[in-house]
Amino acid sequence: MPSSTASVDLRKLALVLVVLTGVGLFFGLDLGRFFGLKFIQDSLGTLVAARAAHPVQASLLFVAVYVGVTALSLPGAAILTLAGGALFGLVWGTLLVSVASTLGATLAMVTARYLLRDLVQARFGHKLTTLNQGIARDGAFYLFTLRLIPAMPFFVLNLLAGLTHMKIWTFAWVSQLGMLAATLVFVNAGTEIARIDSLASILSPSLIGSFVLLGLLPLLVRKALAVAQRRKVYARWKTLRPKRFDRNLVVIGAGAGGLVTAYIAAAVKAKVTLVEAHRMGGDCLNYGCVPSKALIRTARLAHQMRHGARYGLSDCAPAFSFQSVMQRIHAVIAAIEPHDSVERYTGLGVEVLQGHATIVNPWTVEIALNDGGTQTLTTRAIVIAAGASPVVPPLPGLDDVGYVTSDTLWDALAKLDEVPRRMVVLGGGPIGCELAQSFQRLGAQVTQVEMAPRILLREDLDVSQLALESLQADGVQVLSGHKALRCERQGEQKIIVVEHAGAEQRIEFDALICAVGRAARLTGYGLEELGIPTSRTVETNEYLQTIYPNIYAAGDVAGPFQFTHTAAHQAWTAAVNALFGDVKKFKTDDSVIPRATFIDPEVACVGLNELEAKEKGVTFEVTRYGIDDLDRAIADSEAHGFVKVLTVPGKDRILGVTIVGTHAGDLLAEYVLAMKHGLGLNKILGTIHTYPTLAEANKYAAGEWKRAHAPARLLAWARRYHDWKRR
To answer: Which pTM value belongs to this model?
Structure first.
């Protein structure tokens, strides 16, 4: 690998020398004098005679000179185009110039890509993500538009295109087509070169204006097509569009996405109605993030009490009432509930209606109120934030034995005097792992069943293995690679039958939790009638618009992530676009999305992990720091886990981070900030971290990277210098 890298560097150096030599000779020998209008006019007779005597050689020499000038981005392409018309006539001159300019432009683009793209992407890649996505989608269209406008510098486009991911062939044929109109004008002018006083006389204001209009034509056509498409989508509803609207915005769903959307709308003084059929706060407050973290905290304390000797105390079995544990969880929900309450949002200026919303047409929402009656509202825009619900697998006999989900367990188990003695958790994802570990620590014997070959399948193998070992150390029986077949009931006995390696296994249980995932809520509120496409989620564009530009989706229902913080992030985009999209629209940015699984030790990730990088074919370098070496972790008897950072090979630009350890979710924030704002590991290393804190793990991980990239040659010279100083 080092020899290959050195070979590439030598080739780049050689190319740089060739380019610099060519540019140096051009200016050093004053070759620019041969590319002036006066020189061409004065030498026209001689040049025409030479072309007549050797037409093939003259054509090849002309193309070679033209390619060289344009490939090196030297001044003179416009004069050469005129010369092409003067020497070869309109038809042959246009052909030669078109071919030569395309070859030269493509060489300039390839050279810029080879020499500069890696450097630019390493330094500004995070800022160029959207540009590269646009190039992949509409690159040919925009290049063609810019090529039509002579005011856009020829060489600048060549160099900029080289820094993107545009395909070389696409660049070549679009450039040739886009430059053809201007080439014809200049070559035609060259046939009358004796009458030309200056280049300015060729491009009159009216001609420039014509080219600009020509360049804008594709944009205008595209805009017209968008308008036509919009009219087509709304065609069957056009008679129902109200002349005036009751609301600026109606938001369906009062989970994280809906609450933030309504909050923003009220903050900018829009008239907004928020509709929720069930509980304010949605899944996160009532069934997900809040109650699960309250459960985890209690379970963690119980675990620490059982292992008091780790802290110099005595081990002791915690005495507790399971009902009290569940009451505490509901008390936590009640304490946070006012943040998401009807009263708070009403006070902020949001109209909150509790009932079931149905989108009747693109501008009308009908609400069946929970307390009876119906209210119909017309609105300029709608944001769908209906969230997601637990997936219940179609297991035969499941209803007979009874089950709970991550939504229903909080109320169902709160009725019990004791924790269920034997529990089965279906699912090895984050929710399943969190619940399995917590209930095991509270005294249940938990069996976790996962069909995939390992738990936390989305994480790297080492992360999955560490999580497995942690759950097993707590006593959870983890059955990965086991497929649930059916449930059976024999009197009071409840059984689930699973299959592994062709053999069936019967597991008795007292309570079964389905935690196999969550699915977006896509039915029951009008999407089908409006023809809004759905697959696993509501289909939207980068602005979170559905096929109806005034109807948006955000949060779990829009995907691709099912995180509260992502829903809030998308809600800002949906709200601003819904209210101000006619003035300015914003694309949703999902490039840096953190996630965390709150088992013990926690697993937190942002960006790419090794598994995802390999799947996407992204080259990377791994830096790893073991938290067992961290002073604060040792002092807390929490010296386990690691920080793993993926970077661009040879660079400090962060591609992704995985942290496993105590408070990993909190530690990840520094890396999220760094990736979002393009800060590399050198910046983290240069930041002062309080001692002794867990956050120092981030600095030490950056230090590991720095040591691996220490400048060996420079250090060798430093050693010689210090040796000399001691003499």
So the answer is: 0.77
